[in-house]
Amino acid sequence: MITFFTSGSTGKPKQIRYQHSAIDKLADRAIELYNYNSSSRILNLYPNSSIAHYTISSYPAQRAKAELFNFYWNVYGFYSVYQNFNPTHIACLPKHIALLSKTKTWKDINFLDRVIILGGDEIDKDMLKMLINKKAKVMTTYGSTENAPPVLLGENSLWMKPIEKNISIKHDGELYVNNKPTGDIFKISEDRYYKFVSRKDKIVNRTWKR
Q1: Contact 12, 205 (CB under 8 A)
Q2: Which three-class secondary structure state does DSSP give residue 209?
Q3: Is residue 46 part of a domain?
Q4: What is the domain-level CATH number for residue 45?
Q5: What distance in Å separates the CA atoms of residue 22 and residue 26, rounded to the nearest whole number?
Q6: What is the DSSP letter of 39?
Q7: pTM value?
Q8: Separation CA 116–CA 156 (nearest Å)
Q9: Distance from C-alpha of 127 to C-alpha of 43, rounded to nearest angstrom
């Protein structure tokens, strides 16, 4: 059994426990969703304490026999690492992109044929447009840092399709996963795509994670 704790951004950190076999399944699902293979070069910007290492980047890379670079985050060192490693995939938080966009080297970065996997925080339309203009394929995710692969996944869009089957929205717009509240408000389109709106002011101290 492996035990993780959430960040505490919505209150007291929640304990998430996984069996090793479950981590294996999640890693294999990430390989499928993000199209990792032995030719992939994955640049991971997630902090060392994040479960994303096991379910988005490092462990899936190992299982796919892909090349991996775990970058100890330094906004000013990114450009050099990016140029030298030449990744096919970048796994990161929206705040990494927000910080990078303010550096002098940002204008020189071309994300053509790169897949950028974003999760763990809100992604706004300006950031998405900025990345698409740099020719990136952007995978927008929800739930990826605690129960990855995500329960919602989008491609070059803030509207995400459900990965889990048991997803619903209650009358107040709150998203429920596995019949448990997430504390997040979403819009839903006619073709059942979901878009994050905001956090609820007050949330029930229960988690939808298994």
Answers
A1: yes
A2: coil
A3: yes
A4: 3.40.50.12780
A5: 6
A6: T
A7: 0.85
A8: 10
A9: 19
Quick check: is 200 in a domain? no
Q: Which residues pair with 137 in a beta bridge?
A: 115
pLDDT digits (tens, 9 = 90+) for 120-170: 777 889 999 999 999 999 999 887 445 555 788 999 999 999 987 788 888
In a domain, 149, yes or no: yes
Q: Is 2 helix (H, G, I), strand (E, B) or coil?
A: strand
Q: In which order are the strands placed within the sheet that holds 161-162?
A: 67-70, 41-44, 89-92, 115-118, 137-142, 152-155, 161-162
Q: What is the 3-state secondary structure (H, E, C) of 143-182?
A: CCCCCCCCCEEEECCCCEEECCCCEEECCCCEEEECCEEE
Euclidean distance between CA atoms 78 and 15, whole angstroms = 32
Q: Which domain holds residue 137?
A: 2-166
Among all chains, which residue has been given the structure tokens 């990345």?
131
Paired with 153 in beta bridges are 141, 161
Name the domain count of the chain: 1
Residue 189 lies in a domain: no
